[in-house]
Amino acid sequence: MAKKLVIKVTAGADAPERCSQAFTVAAVAVASGVEVSLWLTGESSWFALPGRAAEFDLPHAAPLPDLIDSVMSAGRITLCTQCAARRDISEQDVIPGVRIAGAQVFVQEATTEGVQALVY
Question: What angle do CA 110, 93, 72 make, to 5 degrees?
Fold first, then answer.
């Protein structure tokens, strides 16, 4: 059975340690061969936009752009449909490779047999 991890991150610059933990866990999981689906919701939604991750700074943490690149290399990043709409973010605005999808897709991914889900 393949390992899969679905991570939903709600925190952004408003809660930098929680935000960084989510991206770090996702990147480490990808590096460990785990299939990762990282969902950006709430304030983390802004990191779907080019250049926004470079503005994030947390001492003693890996740079957020590097973590995003790691996740994108072998995992998937999804921006919540409603969160995108509330911030006027469209598919044309996001980093190439980031998809926009809603709760139905999240529930489908998170409830698949053998999947572990984490929320930050």
Answer: 45
Q: What is the pTM of this model?
A: 0.95
Provide the token pair at 31.
């590096």
For residue 37, the SS3 value is strand
Q: Per CATH, which fold does 4-119 belong to?
A: Hypothetical Protein Ychn; Chain: A, (3.40.1260)
Mean pLDDT by 10 residues, the chain (120 residues): 86 97 97 96 98 97 98 97 98 97 96 89
Q: Can you give the residue ranges of every domain in the chain?
A: 4-119
Task: Tell me which DSSP letter residue 93 carries.
Answer: T
Which secondary-structure segment (H or E) carries 35? strand 35-40
